[in-house]
Amino acid sequence: SCSYQKFVNCYRCFYKLQPQLTRSIYDQFISQLQASIKEEIQEVKNEGNLEGLFSSLDKIVEEAKDREEPAWRPSGIPEQDIRSTMVPYLLKHRSHLRRVLREKEEENRKVAESVLMGRERIAELQQLIQARQQAWQ
């Protein structure tokens, strides 16, 4: 095979001394490399929950078979693609922020009224104190 010839070329001196041992080393190296790659792939599958993702992807494909309309595909114009996805999200977010702003403004209005009422009460109490002080003198 081509890969064995490359291996032999790299270890030509060793191959000239013991060709059978070189072949054995090459076979061992390839089998260990394949096992290692399979193990890595399995590890990636396990870590990324790829089995579950593939199952959900298969389910989506099955559900899409009966659809009349085509699935969303990128248009090739990044601005248009991002706009079609981001605009609904941003509009929803803006609506949420406006609602929160209205709530905060109402809360601030109530606090301001409370502060004004407190100031008025303090002014009334100061006048009462002055009136009683003058009456006492």
Task: Describe the protein's architecture and organization.
The chain is mainly alpha-helical. The longest helix is centred in the last third of the chain and has 59 residues, at 78-136. The mean pLDDT is 88. It is 87% helix and 0% strand. The protein is built from five helices and no strands. It is elongated. It folds into two domains: 1-48; 86-136.
How far do the termini sit from each other? Answer: 119 Å
**From N to C, what is the helix and strand string?**
HHHHH
Strand content: under 5%
What portion of residues is helical?
A: over 70%
Average predicted confidence as pLDDT: 88
Would you report the number of β strands? 0
Query: Which residues form runs of ≥5 with pLDDT under 50?
Result: none
Sheet of most strands: none
Number of helices: 5
Q: What number of domains?
A: 2
The rounded Rg comes to 39 Å
Bulk shape: elongated
Helix- and strand-based class?
Answer: mainly alpha
GO biological process, one term: cell division
Organism: Sylvia borin (Garden warbler)
Subcellular location: Chromosome, Centromere, Kinetochore; Nucleus
InterPro entries: PMF1/Nnf1
Summarize the structure.
InterPro entries: PMF1/Nnf1. It contains 5 helices and no strands.
Identify the notable features of this structure and list them briefly:
elongated; mainly alpha; PMF1 factor; chromosome; 5 helices; about 140 residues; PMF1/Nnf1; kinetochore; mitosis
Please give the structural blueprint:
Elements lengths: L1 H9 L1 H6 L1 H30 L1 H15 L13 H59 L1
